Amino acid sequence: MSDKKHDESVAEDPSKIEQIYEDQIHSHDAVFGEITGEGWLGTAALMMKTQIGLGVLSIPVAFDTLGLVPGVIILCAIAAITTWSDYVIGVFKLRHRDVYGIGDAGGLMFGNAGRYLFGFAFCLYWVFVAGSGMLSISISLNAVSTHGACTAIFVAVAAIVGFLLSSIQTLARISWVAWVGLFCILTSIFIVTVAVGVQDRPSAAPQTGVWVSDYKIVASPSFSDAIAAVSSIVFAYAGTPAFFSIVSEMREPRHYTRSLIICQTVVTSVYLAIGCVVYYYCGSYVASPALGSAGPTMKKISYGFALPGLIASTMLVIHLPAKYIFIRMLQGSRHLTANTVVHWVGWLGCTLGITVVAYIIASAIPVFNNLVSLIGALLGTMMSFQPMGCMWLYDHWSQGKIDKSPRWILMVCWSIFVVVSGTFLMVAGTYGSVVSIINSYNESGGSAAWSCADNSNST
């Protein structure tokens, strides 16, 4: 009898039906069934680990190119734009529950062409970042072991470890790796930051005579150098496209904004701290990545602490495109969530395929760092700026037909600005990266594929 009364009360109150429906959605993963995640705090860790990775280590060098004051201003501006972009992702997901990744959002806005374009760009971008992650792990292993083995072996080890960890199926189950990685990468960054402050001079500076840091308040770079530096700062915030996948697997998506605020506050604070302090003390003698700025001993210590963080970053950037492809392959099939042979072969095939392609890219392509900068400028910017401006316009454009309020007009102008500025950075950053690749070839002729040479000496 009590069950009947409950059913009748639910039928009379539509809000209760909606609440039950939302509770079912929030506790169910569209990919792998029941969500057992730890909620918004674990989500914040995943977000921070997606953001704080390879990009932070190039910020002091970007400040050297731009100057301290322009560097800080540009970093804060990019932080503001990407924070808004990240916020729009959470709102868009709550409005459109069937959207899992940025490809789905592209399909909703632009049809199949948008779905395939954004989906392909998403996968290609993260595959190249995964290759960069494998390379950074090999640099770390070389630094810690004093080139204890052939670099090609270290890259292969990075690929194997990345494949094994990324094959853990849900983000909730790998959030503990994100916590460990986040702690380790932050520790390594702060070790270097403190070390350059207490040492007499950076390791690359002249070791005799009086030395004073030659940091610049305002620099005068060429256009190509300046825009390449700006692109490297954009790359430091280019975890944005991954946030679709992260919010889709939250137990409570309505807490997404809380996680986002924590993430962006910590990330921006860390970026400003390491960028300003390391560049102030090192000047033009700052290393890239920045972990090599404080001398051989501190280099070993900082890379030793950073290694788990670099592994966690590589794990995440293999997992995300693999899951996107997996969903596209088995969507609408019982094998998507059922514990079947097809399910496991499909899932492991996706993670292995992404790993192998990323490994080949990391090992075989000459001037790899510049090429990754090119992909970051071409694809990272495109997925962190333009789609989010379009998403806001898609959801709110019809409101202007009813009431063109000042707020609506302001937000339309802002959304258009985000799209236009992102397009400019994409085109100009690509140009700057191409110039850097050409200059690198002219100076050194590129690097050998599957080389055994110590790749930590240049950092």
TrEMBL record:
One of its GO terms (cellular component) is membrane. Keywords: Membrane, Transmembrane, Transmembrane helix. It is a multi-pass membrane protein. The chain crosses the membrane at residues 68-89, 116-139, 145-165, 177-198, 226-247, 259-281, 301-320, 341-365, 371-394, 406-431. It holds the Pfam family Aa_trans. One of its GO terms (molecular function) is L-amino acid transmembrane transporter activity. Its main location: membrane. It is found in: Membrane. Residues 39-434 form the Amino acid transporter transmembrane domain. InterPro entries: AA_transpt_TM. The keyword Repeat does not apply. It comes from the Eukaryota. Belongs to the amino acid/polyamine transporter 2 family. This is Amino acid transporter. It comes from Penicillium cataractarum.
